[in-house]
Structure prediction request, 278 residues.
Amino acid sequence: MFGKNALFRSTSRTTLSTPPGYYESSADRRLDPEGVIYSPQSLDEVVEDAVEDVVERQTPVNDDLAGRFPQVASSSASQPMPEPVVMTWSPPRTVSSGMEGITYTFAQTGRETMVLLPPARHRDTRPAYHVSWYEDFFMKNNFITTIRRGGSEHGQFVGEFNLKGRRGAASLRIGSKNQRFLNEVFVDKNYATNSKFYKLQYDDQSPVLFWNREDRTVCLNSRSEVIATYTPPNYHSKKAALQSAKLVIKPAGRQPDLCDQIVILVLITERLHASSSS
Prediction:
């Protein structure tokens, strides 16, 4: 690359016959393979040779070389430099739930399946729950309903209930807990003001939930705080948006286990309402 630069030659080659008064500097004169005697370049000459080669390849010159060889730096500076590439990204706008809560929409995805979808601008737009059901072969209009996390039937199991025509053997199972008879955990009595409320408490470690039985729109906790509201589908309206059921989870109801039971309670009350009105 640098021609016959002795700086890069091996120091193991033999020198000429040692003249009188030989000392270490005699190693400065060496033979190349053809037997030609030459002297190595100085360091500045080697560096300048290297810089010129860099310029020919259009490689940027570093600051140290530019200071020592300004003529080379000016030549390199004349070469056009590419425009810098700037990567930018704007995060999607999200809905601030605040005290209003997060509104989930029940969206049917198949003949016997539906999902709960968060708002389109929510920070996580994946389905929150997957709901599926099938009819009991031996009992017409009796459906076994299963709830799972996420958007498919392969999600984590949340719960399952079988109303069995509102008979005594109706059952409910939540998470990994043992199955319970529905009449042991789900009660229909007067619990608040003069309105009838459904009460759901799966076991002693589970939260107590109250659901307005009259219009099926409000869910309360044991402190009478509103933790969720529900809007049933309005099939009298021609607006598609009003024909979808919606569930609003308030800040006090967002703990995962509590939210699971709110969804289960909504589905039980809706199934009871559908069976009583059919």
About this structure: Confidence is low (pLDDT under 50) at residues 4-16, 18-33, 35-39, 86-97. The chain has two domains: 35-76, 102-277. The longest helix spans residues 256-277. The helical segments are 43-56, 63-68, 70-77, 182-185, 256-277.
